[in-house]
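Problem 3 from the worked examples.
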Amino acid sequence: MVIPSYTAAADRPVSLTLIVRASLLITAIATFFQPAEAVLSVNATPEYIHSCRKADVQFNSCIKETFNHLRPYLINGIEELTVPPIEPLVIPKMQMENGHGAVRVRAILSNMTIHGASNYTVLNVRSDMNKYRIDLGLFIPHIEATGNYDVNGNVLLLPVRSRGEFWASFENVTALAKLYGVEVNKEGVKFMKTERLGIGFKLEKSDFKIKDAINMQNVIGEAMNVFLNENSAEIIEEMKPAASQAIGKHFKNFLNNAFLQIPLKVWLKDSE
């Protein structure tokens, strides 16, 4: 899988509400983990875990199967890990900020409901478990999202303020998540913790509509809808770095809430 370039394009037109869209793309790919207290026993392997061995010559294929095996359980949620169902995926709030270049804005997304995230497929895996490195290539055929947005900032020195409701649809989304982990020891039990998470994405088609509560009853709201759809590819490309950074930060926390409950020996059988 080829990771999209993050080269800036400052000479392209930018719409602040597209930050909302760029942020949503990767949150839809990510599985949504909530904090939990329970820690699984090292002596049992739950049915939702497909375990692997580092010594397996087909280890990457095994890890791929582990994530694909997990999918139907995520749809309904995993009670003992307090992981809620991901269909639909519900995200109460997420914040994103871009403070560089001609576009300097702060965006808050809230009350988000995302359909289609459970239909993910892990396409390929590259890993080095001696260094706790895992790269995952994923594909989602269709994502649809609704929620509220609040954007405040400046574009080309002009103040922009927009708040209201949004609807977004994305087709054929591909992404690569690069996980950098470390081993941690809790009361003699070893776990993997995510130290850093890098994310890249691309998509084939997108649609985006807003209902602007500030600029209502004038032509601004409709003009923004037209602009978003006609310039979606260019705008999303420009906003990728800021969107990926924000989503990576959130997804890192989500992963750790799960990883730090599952001992290494449960899913990596020949770990010491």
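Problem 4, a separate protein:
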Amino acid sequence: MMNFNSLFRSQIFQKYKLVFNKTMFIRSTDKPNTESVIRPNKSQPYTKFFVLDFEATCDNGAHLLKPQEIIEFPCILVELNTVKGSFDVVSCFHSYVKPIIHTQLTDYCTQLTGITQDMVSNSPPFDDVFLNFCNWHNYHTNMEKEKSIIVTSGNWDIGNMFVEQCKLYPSSIKIPEFMRTWINIKKLFALTMGQYPLGITNMLKRTNSKQFGNIHSGIDDCVNIITIMNQLSQRGCVFQATNKITSV
């Protein structure tokens, strides 16, 4: 079993200022249909994949928190090994995040995610975490020689949660270009397998794959998404962009 914690190496970079443009909408860049089933032996448009799965503050029933805030920011960088047809882990970014509005986690949130109050109270706020993430991302990419893309399970992480989170930091955060386009692995699963999945557990079950760790642990879900990507790769999936955020 690979040790993902050992893959993370912190990097020190000079800080920079970001500016936020508030008005956004999301458009789909591809629609699943019966004629779009992926065939094997096609070239891949991307060389590196940043697999991401946020966890956020939440509550149960009528007391849903608004706004929600990201409290776990995990991302695992993988490259497709074209010889093996599987993804190799290159590096891992992982940080918990201190919420600034609903500073106390609900019991429901802790039970669902496994994230405790101490874990977030002793962590940096989102703008610092996001700066570190951007520097880590840039350290591992060379946009002139290679193409990379974010991978998530669904559109909530980037299209909803990330955009709403950035609105809490209007003077210091702008959504960078590399965060505006992503692969919704559910859509590629549907294109490859012929049916849209319910979620990570469903995709693992349908590919006879073993679950790693706990669902709703962000870093564990990243590992599970990579497992699903490996299964789709073996079935000839082309890992193409599915969604994009566009400024209005």
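Solution to problem 4. The longest helix spans residues 218-234. Confidence is low (pLDDT under 50) at residues 1-41.
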